[in-house]
Amino acid sequence: MSSSMTFPSDQTNNRRQFIKTAATLASGTIAARSVLAPPAVFASGSDLLKVGLIGCGGRGTGAAQQALLADKNVKLTAMGDAFGDRLKLSLNTLSAREDVSAKVDVPPEQQFVGFDAYQRVLATDVDVVLLTTPPQFRPIHLKAAVEAGKHVFAEKPVAVDAPGVRSVLESCAAAKRKQLSVVSGLCLRYDQGFRETVQRLHDGAIGDIHTLMANDYRGKIWVKPRQADWTDMHWQMRNWYYFTWLSGDFNVEQHVHYLDVCAWLFKGYPAKAIGMGGRQVRTDAMYGNIFDHHSVTYEYENGARLFSNTRQQARCKNDSAAYAQGSRGQALVSERRLEITTDATWQFKDNVKNMYQVEHDELFAGIRQGTPLNNGEYMAKSTLLAIMGRMATYTGQEVTWEQALNSQQDLSPQEYAWGPAPDVEIARPGVTRLV
C-alpha cells in the first residue's frame, strides 16, 4: 500500500487485474508452497510461528493481541497499513501490553505503509497473516496470502460485492488444496454458548424452524472530519465505514454477524430477498453514501422466512440478536442471552472463554496439529447473504440468490492511489439498477 503507488498504464485497473497482479508479485518474491505438497507442520510446539498484521486499526490490533496469546511460541514480525499513523499506534499499543510485548518484534524495515503494504508483508517470512483492513481489500489480500502459502485469519465480512465473494470462494478452495488455514472473523461461531445453543436447536429443541429474525439496532458510530490536505481517496479511506465500495454498507459490515447466525441455525441460505432502506438521519455528506436503515425479508425454498432489520440512529432502543421460531417453541440467540423456550425454559449460563480469543486459539492449534481449519464456504456465503440484502434495499427489486452470486457489479475503484476516489452516489430504490 505505498502512498505514491499507481498502476502501469498498460494494465487494466479493475479488481480482477489487480488480484492477478498481486498474485504475480507475491509469487515472484515468495517461494510459495506447492499446491501438491502440504505446508510445514509445527506439531512439536517448539517451532516459532511468525505473524504478519495487515490492517492496523482497532480490530487489527485486537486480533494481533489474540494471535500472540493463542500460542506459546509466536511472534509478530511484520505489519502493514495504508496509513503510517495507524501502524505506529497499533505497534505502540501492542508493545505496551505486558501480556504480549515480549512477542512483538517488528523492526522499522518490517513496517510497511501504503496500498502495497500487504504485498511487502507477504514477502517476509511470516507463517500466518491477519487480514483486518476494510472489507474491500479482503478478496485481494486473501488471494495473495494463499498464493504466498500463508495461513490466514480473515476478518468479516470478506467482500463488498459478488465478484469479491466469488474470488474468496476460489481462494478458500485453493487454501484447502494447499492445506492452509482460513479462519473467519465471524466470531459468534466460536462462542461456546452459541455453539451449544445452536446444537440444541439442530437437535430439534424447538422442532422445525420456520421463521427467523435478525435485528441489529444500534446508535451512531465514529466519523472523522475531512482535513484540508486530504485527497478524496484519503478522506474516503479514513472514513471507510461510510462508503459502500469500502465497507459494503453497515448491513454487510456489521449485520453479517447475525445474518450468519441465522444461516447457521437454518443450515442453509435463502432463495430470494426483497426489502427497503434509506438515509433518514445520516443525510450529511460526511456520511458518504451508506444507508442508516435496512429491512429485508428473505425467503427459503421451503417457504421459511428470515426477517432482517438494521438501524443506526441515535437515541433509539438498541437490539442485536437472532430469534428463531419453530414448530414446538422459540429461541433467543444473542450475546446478552441464550435461551430456548418450549414447555420449559433453558438458558446457557456458563462462563466461557472470549470468542475472539477462541478464534485464534483454534487457528493456531490447527496449524500446530497439521489439521488446518477452513471456514471459507460459510464466511463467503454469509457475506453474500448480506450483500444480497443490500442489493434489494438499494434497488427496491426482488433479488434471487443466483442473481446475487452471479452479479457483475464490481465496486472497486479504477485504481488504488492517493488521488481521486469513486463518485459518492447514493442509491435510490426504484431508480438504482440491479446489476
Account of the 3D structure:
- With 435 residues, this protein is α/β, with parallel strands linked by helices.
- It contains 14 helices and 15 strands.
- Helix 1 packs parallel to helix 5, helix 2 (58-69) packs across helix 12 and helix 11 (256-266) crosses helix 13.
- The longest helix has 20 residues, at 376-395.
- It is globular, with a radius of gyration of 21 Å.
- Residues 1-45 have low confidence and may be disordered.
Q: Output the structural class.
A: alpha/beta
What summary fits the major beta sheet? 9 strands, mixed
CATH class of the largest domain: Alpha Beta
Assembly state (oligomeric): single chain
State which percent range the strand residues make up.
15-25%
Strand order across the largest sheet: 14-13-12-11-7-10-9-8-15
By CATH's scheme, which homologous superfamily of the largest domain applies? NAD(P)-binding Rossmann-like Domain
Mean pLDDT over the full residue set: 91
CATH architecture of the largest domain: 3-Layer(aba) Sandwich
Q: Please count the beta strands (DSSP E, at least 2 residues each).
A: 15
- Helical stretch tally: 14
List keywords for this structure.
14 helices; 435 residues; alpha/beta; Dihydrodipicolinate Reductase, domain 2; 19% strand; Rossmann fold; single chain; 15 strands
Summarize the model shown.
With 435 residues, the chain is an alpha/beta fold. It has helices at 15-29, 58-69, 84-95, 117-122, 138-147, 162-177, 192-202, 232-238, 244-247, 250-253, 256-266, 355-369, 376-395, 401-406; strands spanning 49-54, 74-81, 111-113, 128-131, 151-154, 182-184, 209-218, 272-278, 293-299, 305-312, 319-326, 330-333, 338-341, 345-347, 399-400. A 9-stranded mixed sheet has the order 14-13-12-11-7-10-9-8-15.
